[in-house]
Amino acid sequence: MLAIRKASDRGAANHGWLKSFHTFSFASYRNPAEQGFSDLLVINDDTVTGGQGFGEHPHRDMEIFSYVLEGALEHQDSLGTGSVIRPGDVQLMSAGSGVSHSEYNHSASERVHFLQIWIVPNVRRAEPRYQQQHFSAEAKRGRLALIISPDGAEGSLEVRQDARVYAGLFDGSESARLQLAPERHAYVHVARGSLELNGVLLQAGDGARLRGERELQLAHGTDAEVLVFDLRPNELPQMP
């Protein structure tokens, strides 16, 4: 079964320096029907103007990753990490027992557009850690590249949960298939462009819950960038 979450139905917030769209309930956006899916709790589509960002703030017991689509995002945290995240980079911060961080637009004039995504961990109060890896456009072109996994397979970042995240770029005749194990759920988020998922057209910002599907088919993309989440067969996130 495939259930579409249209981009136009997402929560929206405009703070001037920040424009954000919330796939699931977040901050002041509350939708009883959208409280996450499986272990996926947050997908925020954020655009931050030059020189602005999120000041230092704490997190605990959450797997948080950022995926930059345009511009550059500057990260600082209480672990002593300082980095700049650009398109192709994936940043994963395991908050564990507690970490504080800030995220700012690295440019004083150009905007940064990125996704911030939260996955509920399978353990509480673990040691905080930071990971960052670059996945080239070539590695994602016309295929689904594994970027996050429980065991760091294929050079992916290691998440504390039974979840796998794939990223792909599709245009024209490019296509890909992903087999799902029995009883798994999946979530697909179109970061930009458009493409067909199992014959259904999705546009930028659209998402889709998949339950009971054994295969995902991605095809007929138009400048499409997509994230695919292979998830446990739970309906809603639950802390361990």
Automatic annotation (TrEMBL):
Co-factor binding details: Binds 1 Fe cation per subunit.
Source taxon at top rank: Bacteria
Molecular-function GO terms, alphabetical: metal ion binding
Gene3D superfamilies reported for this sequence: Jelly Rolls
Binding of Fe cation, residues: 57, 59, 101, 103
Annotated Pirin N-terminal domain residues: 12-119
Chain segments annotated as transmembrane: none
Keywords in alphabetical order: Iron, Metal-binding
Residues annotated as domain Quercetin 2,3-dioxygenase C-terminal cupin: 146-231
Stated family: Belongs to the pirin family.
Protein name, per record: Quercetin 2,3-dioxygenase
